[in-house]
Amino acid sequence: MSTHRRNIGRRRLLAASAVGVVGTGAAAAVGGGLLSSASAATFGHTDDGTNFVINTGAALVFKVSKSTGDLTSLVYRGKEYEGYGGRHSHVESGLGASTVTVRQSGSTILVKVVHGAITQWYAARSGQNNVYLWTDKADASFTATRFLVRLKPGLFPNEGSDSWIEASDKVIEAGDVWRRADGTTHSKHYSGKRVIDYDHIGFTTGSVGLWIVRSNHEKASGGPFYRSLLRHSNDKGAGLYEILHYNQAQTEAERFGLQGPYVLAFTDGGAPSASLAAARLDTSWVDGLGITGWVGAAGRGKVAGVGIKGMDAKHPYTVGFANADAQYWTRAAAGSGAFSCKGMLPGTYTLTVYKGELAVHTRSVTVKAGGATALNSITVTGDPSTAKTIWRLGDWDGTPGGFKNAELMTYAHPSDARAAKWTGNVTIGGGSEGASFPAYMWSGVNDGILVYFKLTAAQAAAAHTLRIGVTDAFSNGRPRVTVNEWVSAIPSAPAQPSTRSLTTGSYRGNNRSFTFSVPSSAWRTDVSQYNILKINIVSGSSGTAFLSPGTSFDCLELLA
Asked: CATH class for domain 297-382?
C-alpha cells in the first residue's frame, strides 16, 4: 500500500449496475443479513487442522487461519470468493504468526487474533451472511490501519475509475496510477468519495453482492471529508478496504484503540441492509462478548444543537467533533442548522462547524456517559465570505468546487484525457470566470496564470488586500503574486500533508488563507486599462510535471 505523495463517466460508475461505491441511505436488499431460522441448525464452528471453519447457518461459510488470523476462505452459496495472488484477506498487510482462538457464545461465534499491538476480531451471527470485524491497535508499530478483503479475479465486473487492466494499461505514476489506451486514468485511489458520503462499498453481479459496511470511524483519523482507498479491481483480483488510518493526505494524528464493528456482507445482489449501517446497527449483542475496549450504548452520550445562525443557503453544513481519542460528525439541517450526534464516547471535544468543508466556527463541548448535552443556537463567526470584495473567484467552502477540472480530480489523474487544459488566463467580468480558473496549479505545469481586472478611480486610489485560499499543497507549493509591476514577498509554507494528494483523488489538506497587502501604487492609474494579477507557485522543493510543487484553490478575492 503506497504511502507516497460528475460527469457521464462517473454516473456510469455509480449507475444501476451498482458496481462501485454506493452512497449513504441505499435501500435494504434481500439477503442483507436478517436471521434465517430455517438454516440456523448448521450454525457452528469446526477445526480443519489449519483453520477455524465457521458456518453462519445461512449461505456463508468462512475460514480463519489458526496461525496468522488471516481470513482464508469466503464460500457463499458454495462458491469461493476469497484470495488472489497467493494471498488472503487480513488486517494491515498480514500479521504473520499470531495467537488465534475461537469460542461460541449463544448465537455468536467469536474469533480473536492477537499479534503484538494489534488484536483483530471476527464474529458470526446465527443465520446471517455477514462477518463482523473489529480492529484494536495500541500503538504505531504498524504504519497504517486497514482491513483488506482480497477477492478472486473475474467474479465481479471490472469497471470504474478504481479498476484497471494490468495486461494492457500503462503505469504512469508510483506504480499505482494507470492510463488506458483511450487516455482515461485509473487507480485504487480514485473512489470519488469522502467518508461522510458512503455507508458501504462493494461489488455486485446483480445476483450476488459483496460489500463492506464501514464502521463509525470513531478511532480513525482525517475527519468527515477524508478520502482514501475504498476498493480496487483488475484482471488479477479485486479488493475491498476498511481504512482506519492511512498516511496519505492525512491531516490528523493517528488515534488508537478499538475500532468497529465494520461488516463484510453478502447479499442477493442488492445493497446490504440499511440496518447494518453504523448509525443504525444494533450492537447490544456485543456487550457481553468480552471484546477488549468495547463501549456499549450505556457508556456513551449525545450532543444536540437547536440550530446554527449565519448559514449560507448555497452550502451544506456539517458539525464535527474531535479530540485525541475519537472523532464524530453529523449533518446540520438545511435552513435551521439543527443537529444531533449520538453514540459518542465521554470526553471533551472541539466542536467544529463546517460550511462545505471549511471550518467557520469552533467551540468546546463535553459529553457524559448516558447523558445528552444540549446546545443553544451557534452563530457562525469565521466565514470569510462575509467580507466585501471588488471581485471574487470561487467561493469560500474549503473545496476547489466550481474551478476548472475540480470534480474530475476526485476520480482521475490530472493528465486524464477528459481534463480541460490546465493553462489559460481569466478576465474578471468576462463570464464563467470561476470555471475558467484551474482548480490546481503546479510550478511545472501551469505556473504563471494571469487574472485581468479593472478598477474604478476610487478603487485604484486605495490599497487593497488580495486573499487566496488553498485547500492543500504538494511539496510546499504556495502562491506568490505579482500585480502589474509590484511583486509580493514569498509567503511561508503552511503545514500540509507531505504525501501525494493532488494526483491521487484528494484536494483535502489543511485549509489556509494567504493575504497580500497590495499598495495603491501598484494599480493602473488609467481606469480603462486592465490590472494584471500573476500567480506563481513557489517552493524550496523541486519536481516535474504533476509531481512538481503545487496547490489546490478554494477562493481568490480582492477585498474592497
From this structure: mainly beta
